[in-house]
Amino acid sequence: MERVEVANQWAAKVVEFEMLQRVLTAWERPHRFAHQGGESERWSDWLEPPKLTEVVETLIEDRKRPAWGVSAYRSSAETVAES
To answer: Is the pLDDT confidence value at 79 over 50?
Structure first.
């Protein structure tokens, strides 16, 4: 499994959206009664997904946005103190 670390949730969603757009042709609609058996969606095995690092590299305009690299770090002690 490949993993790419980004600074925040917005950047992660941008990467996820781009990846899903690229592999959409491999998505197979579930049977209309599939929810009764626990099946929600399927992906065909014929498509080899692109590498995440390559997807991130193509997001040139998004990576230029100020929000791309912004991150807020909170320690667990800070979170508890605020509660």
So the answer is: no
Percent helix, strand, coil in the chain, to 5, is 55, 5, 40
Strand, helix or coil for residue 23: helix
First to last CA, the chain: 36
Tell me the two tokens of residue 63.
């990576």
Beta carbons of 15 and 6 less than 8 angstroms apart? yes
Encode pLDDT of 22-36 as tens digits: 888 887 776 666 566
* Cβ–Cβ under 8 Å, residues 81 and 53: no
Indicate the SS3 state at residue 27.
strand
